[in-house]
Design brief:
With 628 residues, this protein is an alpha/beta fold. The protein folds into three domains: 12-41 and 72-189 and 224-327, no CATH class; 427-579, 3-Layer(bba) Sandwich (Glucose Oxidase, domain 1); 581-627, no CATH class. It is built from 24 helices and 14 strands. The longest helix is centred in the first third of the chain and has 17 residues, at 24-40. The radius of gyration is 24 Å and the shape is globular. The N and C termini lie far apart (50 Å).
Length: 628
Amino acid sequence: MAQASTPLNATVQQVTQRIRERSAERRALYEQRMADQHQRGVHRGELSCGNLAHGFAACGTQDKNALKMMNSANLGIISAYNDMLSAHQPLETFPETIKAAARDMGSTAQFAGGVPAMCDGVTQGQPGMELSLFSRDVIAMATAVGLSHNMFDAALYLGVCDKIVPGLFIAAARFGHLPAVFVPAGPMPTGLPNKEKARVRQRFAEGKASREELLEAESESYHSPGTCTFYGTANSNQLMMEMMGLHLPGTSFVNPGTEMREALTRFATEQAIRNTEPGGTYRPFYQQIDERAIVNAVVGLLASGGSTNHTMHLVAMAAAAGLTLTWDDFTDLSAVTPSLMRVYPNGQADINHFQAAGGMSYLFRELIGAGLIHSDIPTAFGTDMTAYTQEPFLEDGKLTWREGPQQSLDEDVLRPVATPFAPTGGLTVLDGNLGRGVIKVSAVAEEHRVVEAPARIFEDQNDLKAAFDAGELDRDVIAVVRFQGPKANGMPELHKLTPFLGVLQDRGHKVALVTDGRMSGASGKVPAAIHISPEALDGGPLSKLHDGDIVRLDADAGTLEAKVSAADWAEREQRVAELDHYHVGLGRELFGGFRHLAMRGEEGAGVFGGFEADDLARQAGQIHDEDA
């Protein structure tokens, strides 16, 4: 087993310390608020008879009697179940499993509330995608509504995909006086190889494959209940929850519908009860998740070549726990974090191959052994992180944990720290006269990481497709898709553009994408500078760029520059775009307030403000309510 005494990497220690120092005041206020809520107790014991009767009116006699006694734990279940989306369909049966496991422990569980779960795979390139990022904050608010009845001693959070887990985490942080366990559903079994899927997509973009061929390939890839098997935001979510100790060890990538998945869900319930005050050991979220856990999540993301979306989500998640995380923290951690995973789009394997090659237990072993993560943090499992080098097994139907593999079983998928795929992490920050953004380099070949070419400006992703179809992009080009930030239209993913840009790159052209929107958790081989902040609508430099301007994207140096003289740049006016067509239809008109309140991508692109940071600024007279 990796030793907990391994010295912590100096950069990891330094980044952790500066997060702690810059967050000191707001974190102290956060902890005080959570402690105050804990002292007020679970209001079930304070409710009037009428209130309490409403709270358990729908329960069976056994649960009702247990809730009347006040001396056993009651778990609140928050679930993202719906039966349309493959990742969340397996969650349908989880509440009954949880309730039965709670009763066996002499406790109870109630379904506190459901939260929306939308799929970027369904809405990609469609108007609905403009609600995607904001759904994270809706999920956080919906979770708060569910838990606001204050009937609960702990909460179980059932969710998987892109915005769902970050939204649940934000809410868990604001209900940080409650112990929390996150319960995943697991990935679908392996389908059509990812390389073949990508090949059919590009052939369709070139008009060489029919729509019937494309649909067949997609259907063979996304073919059953469970999370999509590529390594995008959904699977990055699961890895990060385990890196922070909010999952049970080895639970992230167990397929749904299996005996093991059922056993892990039961054990998560039992552990949540043990973590409550009635259960004997109080382990609230706010005492478990601090700057060390957040750094672990960032390092895990970087080592695995995870989703670019988390350069925003983790900032917002940390803020909800009273912590200030910056993109510079990502950059510095990336410089010392080796790339240890190759899962599509960073390679050809899928997440099931990663699991078979050694999975999370091996990844933990390597990162702890190299001193790259904090191994001494408390976890929902009731141990420190060293227990996460173990993986679950069933022995005569009973769940147990054993040490995971000492070596990778497939070094084409999972490598040791001593011989990584690359010496640094898969994400980096770009800075220059076009603003600040992020780029995922883990899937970008070295020869494509520096691109200097004329810009072609678009203000709608559909216009890029039209230009491609017309042959106007068959050259070296940096495609700039602007007015795609959170204030403009909700910051949709632009993953629909990947096949077109990929075709141009395969033809030998120097190609890149620059945008104040998002690309995808599955960003692939084409270099993409995304989340450019400030966004064009917010006075960002992208609004001054002209067709034909030479732009240089240098992922190695971390720069993004328009080759325009300072005098010329100063004379240019900000472009004002017509955006009304983004704001009506498919419910987008309901989110006008969100667009107005949205913060910059670098600040997490949320609508809640800075939580305790804003409160402290008000107390200091630095901001006023009318400014918020």
